[in-house]
Amino acid sequence: MNQNSKNVSKKSVISNVFYVVAAIVAILGVALLINNIYLYKTSYSQAVAQGYSAATVKKALMTSQLLPGIFQPIALYEGIAFLLLGVGIVNKKISTSLTLLAKAELCSDSVKENVDKAETAKKIKIEKDIEKA
Questions:
Q1: What does the CA dihedral 98, 101, 102, 107 come to, rounded to 10 degrees?
Q2: Between the chain's N and C termini, which has fewer beta carbons within 10 Å?
Q3: Angle between helical axes of 2-49 and 54-61 (0-180°, round to 10)
């Protein structure tokens, strides 16, 4: 039973690792999102400072730099973060279920042992009664 509790704690640690990695990936996604918005802002400012029309620059950079810069971190990094979070939750639930199943098997084994001991005791008592008679 001691080894069984060690397996459960290892599985809990694995779930916690999934949670931590999901948080790190989510933070990286937010950082990349902020970086892409900042890059768009500086590119826009530089192009306007060079004398290009603000509307033309905005139209060109919006489709080529800003929208992909927003959707990529959200879709990719946050999607991976949610996937890791889901895997951590599923892993924790499975390990809990396996723990309960292992406990049920141990209880079943102990009940069987008690029944076997009771049956053996009855047989011994019957044999002693037969010897007395």
A1: 160
A2: C
A3: 150
Q: Tokens for 32?
A: 């990349």
Contacts of 69 by beta carbon, 8 Å cutoff, 6+ apart: 33, 36, 37, 39, 40
Per-residue H/E/C for 87-106: HHHHHHHHHHHHHHHHHHHH
Question: What are the Cα distances from residue 88, in Å, to 22, 57, 77, 99?
Answer: 9, 44, 16, 16
The Cα–Cα gap between 54 and 60 comes to 10
Model confidence, pTM: 0.65
pLDDT in tens, 102-125: 666 656 656 566 666 666 666 666
